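step: validate -> pass
step: tokenize input -> pass
step: predict -> running
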Amino acid sequence: SARRGFHRNVYREATQLAYKLSKTGFAIITGGGPGIMEAANKGAYQAGGQSVGLNIKLSHEQRTNKYVKDWESFKYFFTRKVMLAFSSKAYVFFPGGFGTLDEFTEIVTLVQTKRIDPIPIILVNKEYWQPFLVWVYECLYKKNKAIDNDDMGLYHLVDTSDEAFA
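step: predict -> pass
step: emit ->
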């Protein structure tokens, strides 16, 4: 998320996870903006790891955060998402807005339809994600049969950076 409305602990968890992942050799690639994206880039930066931002040109809000070492800027969301999906070995989603939901549902769809190889898709912060996942189960799966039961196994819900790292 680019917004700062989330609790400080969410920012801290994102920083801690990115730090740990960077120390094990992962590059941290975010949207490059403020908020939770900044937190992840900060963790990578503090660990001396690769801190990359794939930014989007918007008329408001989005700016490249100070912890990004390498960056690229995109005019269109779809181009940016292709680059994020192409370069990722895992996807980690912290609380966010419509952009976060768009990226989550797109990556799950790409894995579900076998357009990309299966990769870990991790949702961090149970308080935020659980109501959405209940809706996925109740509405998409149970009531409307719009997805298979196995599709809900494409992602993993965790609460902390330690759980996400594991």
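step: describe -> Helices lie at 8-23, 36-47, 77-87, 98-112, 126-143, 161-165.
step: cleanup -> pass
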